[in-house]
Amino acid sequence: MAMLNLFEVLLFAVAAGLVGSMTGLGGAVVVTPLLVFFGVPIKYAIAASMVCIIATSSGSASSYVRDGLSNVRAAFFLEIFTAVGAIVGAVITSFLSPTLLYFFFAAFLMTSFAAVRRRQSAAEEPVKQDAWAKSLQLSGSYFDRPTGKQIRYELHRPFWAAPGMFVAGLAAGMLGIGAGAFKVSIHEVILGMPSKVSTATSNFIIGMTALAGASVYFSSGLLYLNLAAPLAIGTTAGAFAGSRVLRNLRNETVRTLFLVVLAVVIVEMLYKGLTSL
C-alpha cells in the first residue's frame, strides 16, 4: 500500500469533509478518489472512506438537527432500507475486481448527476402530502437565514423512496461513498424535500448507513486503521466547518456545488478505470 504523508492526509481530509458536509454527498466521495490517486488500492480506500463517512456525518448531523434542518423522522424511516443495502453491498465488494469498482463508482454518480440536474431545471411545485407521509408525520419546517423566513414543507411518496434508498445503501456499501448524491436525489425528486433539508437529512442518514457497511469491511480485514484514523479526524473538522457554511447558502448555490463536485469525481474515476484495463 502506498505511504502517505500524515499532513497531506489530514489536509485533503479536511477539504473533503467540508465539501461533503455542504453538499450532502459525504466526504468519502472526495476521499475515495484521492486515496486511489495516491496509490491506495481501491478496496482499502473504500473501507477507509466508510470510517470517514461516519465521522463526517457525526460532525455535521448534530448541528443540522439542532438547527432544525434535518427531518429526523424521515431519516429513521429511510435508514431501515439503506442499512440493509449497505451490508449487502459491502459483502459484494469483497468479490469484485478493482477495475469494475472504478466503473461502478462513476456510473452510480452519473445517475445521481442526471436526477438532480433534472430536478434543478424543473420548476419547484408545492408538495401535497399523501396518506402514508401523513401517517409517518414527515412534514417539517426550518428557518432560512438568507431569506429570514420560517419555511414549512410537506413530503409525499415515502414508500416510493424505499427501493431507491435500498439501492443507495447497496452503492454505499459497495463503493464507500455514503451514496449521499443518490440520497439527495431521492429526497428531492421523490419525496419533494427542499434542498437544504435534503442535504441535512442526507448527512444524518449516511453515518448510520456507513456504520453498517464498515462492520463488514472490518471483519474482512480491509479496514486499515492507520489510514482511517487521520482521515476520520480531518473529515470531522471539515464537516463542522461545512455545516456552518451551509446555513448561509442559498438552495441554488447548494445544488450548483453538488453538481460540480459530482462532475469532477465522475471524470476522475472513469479515467482511473480506463487506464487500469
Short synopsis of the structure:
This protein is mainly α and 277 residues long. It has helices at 6-23, 28-37, 42-66, 72-93, 98-121, 131-135, 158-175, 180-191, 195-220, 225-246, 251-275, and strands at residues 140-144, 149-153. The chain is globular.
How does this structure look, described?
The protein is mainly alpha-helical and 277 residues long. The protein has one domain. Helices cover 75% and strands 4% of the residues. A hairpin with a 4-residue loop joins strand 1 and strand 2. Helix 3 packs parallel to helix 10 and helix 8 packs antiparallel against helix 9. The longest helix is centred in the C-terminal third of the chain and has 26 residues.
Q: Shape, please?
A: globular
For the secondary structure, the number of strands is: 2
By DSSP (H or I, 4+ residues per run), the number of helices equals: 11
| Distance, first to last CA | 20 Å
The biggest sheet, with number of strands, parallel, antiparallel or mixed sense and barrel status, is: 2 strands, antiparallel
Order of helices and strands: HHHHHHEEHHHHH
Task: Give the low-confidence spans.
Answer: none
Mean pLDDT: 78
Could you say which structural class the secondary elements and strand pairing correspond to? mainly alpha
Q: From the alpha-carbon coordinates, what is the Rg to the nearest angstrom?
A: 17 Å
Helical content stands at over 70%
Oligomer: single chain
What share of residues are in beta strands?
under 5%
- Count of structural domains: 1
Widest beta sheet: strand line-up? 1-2
